[in-house]
Amino acid sequence: MQTIRSFISVPLPSGITSAAAKMIKRLKEHSDSIKWVPVDNMHLTLKFLGEVENIEVHDICKAMRKVSVDIAPFELQFGGAGGLPGNDRARVIYMGVTDPSNSLTRLVNGLETALADLGYRPESRDYVPHLALGRVRSNSRRAGPELVQALEETSATIVGEMVVDEIQLIGSFLEKQGPSYHVMDSLPLGEPSS
Predict the structure, then answer these.
(1) Considering Cα of 128, then 82, then 39, then 172, what sign does the dihedral take?
(2) Is residue 36 part of a domain?
(3) Which terminus of the chain has a smaller tally of CB atoms within 10 A, N or C?
(4) Helix (H, G, I), strand (E, B), or coil: what is residue 42?
């Protein structure tokens, strides 16, 4: 039986990924201890599933469909940079995501519940909407003071907005140049299945 490293995400329009690339370029000048996310691999993660057996994909898509049908398309705003769990001890560098309608959080909570019924362990922490830009390399303990300063300087930068109208199940395949992502299914929001 084959397993596929998988996650559920929102695809991003080119305007958002372009703005994220510019933000990375600006932040990159202040730290070489970060492994930055390639623009082609940027996505807004909703739920990381880990290794999924290929026979489970159908049930996962069914659970995604059950949740997505009840949520109408909604708007998100992107801007500002920060570090998780905090700027001074960042392990993840991110671009902020604002969810004015709270629909993204409702979508994630719905997925957590539906996937728990299939045996996927729910996240122990509350969902914090963010777009990962990079991760501190394992040999570095934290982001340096120059990067912390740069994060604080970009915290009020607004870069754009988008309408979320679909979610995707993505398979991640490790290749020599890094992971490549392949869409296994794409489900529209707010549309009953036919």
Answers:
(1) negative
(2) yes
(3) C
(4) coil
Active site residue 58: no
Domain that holds residue 95: 3-188
Q: What is the pTM of this model?
A: 0.89
Overall domain count for the chain: 1
CATH for 36: 3.90.1140.10
- Tell me the pLDDT tens digit for each residue of 126-168: 888 999 999 887 666 666 788 888 888 887 788 899 999 999 9
Helix axes 57-68, 103-116, angle to 10 degrees: 140
* 127 domain-assigned: yes
Give the Cα separation of 17 and 36 in Å (integer). Answer: 13
CA distances, 125 to each of 2, 85, 128 (Å): 30, 12, 9
Q: Which of 30, 58, 130, 182 is catalytic?
A: 130
Could you please report the per-residue DSSP string of 122-137?
Answer: PPSS----EEEEEEE-
- Catalytic-labelled residue, pool 30, 43, 58, 182: 43
Helix then strand count (H, E) for the chain reads 4, 9
Could you report the per-residue pLDDT of 37-75, keeping only the tens digit for each? 998 889 999 999 999 998 999 999 999 999 999 999 999
- Reply yes or no on whether 182 is catalytic: no
